[in-house]
Specification:
The protein is an alpha/beta fold. It has one domain: Aldolase class I (TIM Barrel, Alpha-Beta Barrel). The chain contains twelve helices and eight strands. The chain has helices at residues 24-37, 42-54, 67-78, 83-88, 108-114, 136-148, 160-164, 168-182, 199-211, 230-247, 262-276, 293-306, and strands at 56-59, 100-103, 122-125, 153-157, 186-190, 216-218, 252-254, 288-290. An eight-stranded parallel beta sheet has the order 7-6-5-4-3-2-1-8. Helix 3 (67-78) packs parallel to helix 5 (108-114). It is globular, with a radius of gyration of 19 Å.
């Protein structure tokens, strides 16, 4: 994360997005071609999957989380692959590790302690996750608590009612206040796109969050009825690209929720590569919010190394 360039944000400019139209059928058509146009096999597929692994925000956001579970998850984050797999892939000199570990604020101290010296950042959800409907002072206090406990990244969730009412100034002011509360921690703005109803709303909310200083935009909390999809991600990436062309800032992207298979991970990597280029395949600009995804990536890599598929229970997370 040392090379991470912060997004300074800009004053709210509604003219940058108010008149934007989104062609739903064209977006869906473009997204549908991604899984069919590219096919990578054998060592090339293994390389893409190792890349995906390094971009995972390994996540536990359950009501029964405990420090012990978080500690086990962090152990997995530091050594996601067995020594045999690492050797078989020729990665002994630089064993891969995940991009971050994402937990609730109360679990941040346990994660920080478990990851000490690993170089893996701790991300914390905050701001009344997942609904975002607690009063603003409490949401800001939650951010400050997580940062004080050692979180390097804060995954905030926007107040969706401000999108429905098109109150862009209020949304901008809230995200800007959250950015200030983060201090040196990076701000990842969750749009909860499954709740936003239209792709135009997704584009507009993306632009407002970035103008207010978000370092990343993220699709979902993982708790909505519909989470990350390729069409929604495509619209967010187009917004990200437009903002970058206007300001020069590189903004990160994080799909979350519903990405469960190695094939899912590949499809999102292809999307990033085709829409934004090679630079957005690094963990400072791309993350995948996931838990069970890592297990399937392990199974596919084990098949590449050994020629056999292992049972899922051989790759526990925590």
């Amino acid at each position: 994360m040392e090379n991470f360039q912060r997004n300074d944000g800009i004053p709210l400019r509604t003219e940058a997005f108010e008149a934007v139209q989104v062609n739903l059928s064209a977006v869906e058509r473009r997204a549908a071609t991604l899984p069919t146009r590219r096919s990578v096999k054998k060592e090339y597929q293994a390389a893409w999957l190792v890349k995906a692994l390094t971009c995972i925000d390994l996540t536990t956001l359950a009501g029964d989380d405990t420090p012990g579970r978080v500690q086990r998850l962090c152990a997995k984050a530091m050594r996601p692959l067995s020594d045999e797999l690492v050797e078989g892939l020729g990665l002994t000199d630089a064993p891969p590790k995940v991009g971050a570990v994402c937990v609730y604020p109360a679990m941040v101290p346990a994660a920080v302690k478990a990851l000490a010296g690993s170089g893996i950042p701790v991300a914390s959800v905050a701001t009344g996750f997942p609904a975002g409907l607690t009063p603003l002072p409490q949401r800001l206090a939650e951010i400050r608590y997580a940062v004080d406990q050692g979180a390097h990244e804060i995954d905030i969730v926007i107040n969706r009612q401000l999108v429905f009412s098109q109150d862009w100034q209020a949304l901008y002011d809230e995200v800007a206040a959250m950015r200030e509360a983060c201090g040196a921690a990076h701000l990842k703005a969750i749009l909860a796109t499954g709740d936003l109803k239209t792709l135009r709303n997704v584009y507009k909310a993306s632009m407002v969050a970035m103008q207010a200083g978000a370092d990343f935009i993220k699709t979902s909390t993982g708790k909505e009825d519909v989470n990350a999809t390729l069409p929604v991600s495509l619209v967010m990436l187009r917004a990200l690209r437009d903002y970058g062309e206007e300001t020069g800032f590189k903004i990160g992207f994080k799909p979350a929720g519903g990405l469960k298979t190695a094939k899912d991970a590949m499809n999102w990597l292809f999307l990033m590569k085709e829409e934004l280029g090679r630079r957005w395949l690094e963990p400072d600009l791309f993350r995948i919010g996931a838990s069970s995804l890592l297990g399937d990536i392990e199974r596919q890599l084990e098949h590449f190394v050994t020629g056999r598929y292992s049972a899922a229970y051989r790759h526990p997370l925590a």
